[in-house]
Amino acid sequence: MAAxxxxxxxxxxxxxxxxxxxxxxxxxxxxxLRPPFSLAIPSPDQYTLLNRAILHGVxxxxxxxxxxIKHLHAIVTDGYATFVTLLxxxxxxxKLLTSVKTQLLWLTDQTVCVLGIGYDAVLISLLRQIVGxxxxxxxxxxxxxxVTLFLE
Length: 152
Known about the structure:
The chain is mostly helical. The chain is 58% helix and 0% strand. The chain has one domain. The protein is globular, with a radius of gyration of 15 Å.
């Protein structure tokens, strides 16, 4: 099963290291991401790999997003700090596919709900993506979603 794309990468542009690590983690952990989940406590390396795989799964498989989040809740050992640092996509956000941006905002909402360590940095990162005086659909959509998130 091939992992779905997160961004549109031009043919001659090098692939982003974060994107590559997420995809590789997802491909290597695909069997671990489907129920029934292991009850064993993962090693630190395995934990990081699972966090990357879960993030890629949530971003590219919206139909399994709730399952992936439940899996994340079950394995978290660091207050979501590892997962939240993966959400900081300052330089990558403009290249994200629309469906991935939608999932990223949903995931940010989920992270805020559990008060994941560093969720404020994710919100600031997303606020920095808003372009002043830009009335394009994408920019207005991001503004609207963030306002909704802050009001909840």
